[in-house]
Amino acid sequence: MRNPPKIPSESNSQEELEQHISQLHSYIDFLDEEIEESKKAKVEEIQLDLEEVEEKISQISGDFQSIQDRLESIQNRLEKFNEEYLQQYGDGPSEEAKDKFFDAAGWHPEDH
């Protein structure tokens, strides 16, 4: 389900509109899962890099600068990941986006 379901025409019944709203909820759940999987993959990649650094630390005999550089790189990636996530997803959809969604669906939570 890569694309949102199409909005039904105005002549549809209440049942069809409720079905469309259900499809939209399913689509939102799908998007949430995609976001989580993407976040998880990035975090796992960073975790693997960190484990590799830990392994190298146990094997080295004095070249700490290369380890320090790698740790700084991992730290920077984690900070960038957090910043991008907050910028991109912050507190979820904006109020404007929510209103547009509810207008398109013809349904508002305040009405129910």
From TrEMBL:
SUPFAM superfamilies according to UniProt: Apolipoprotein A-I
Coiled coil found in the keyword field: yes
The protein's name in its UniProt record: Uncharacterized protein
Superkingdom of this protein's organism: Archaea
Record's keyword terms, sorted: Coiled coil
Coiled coil region boundaries: 36-84
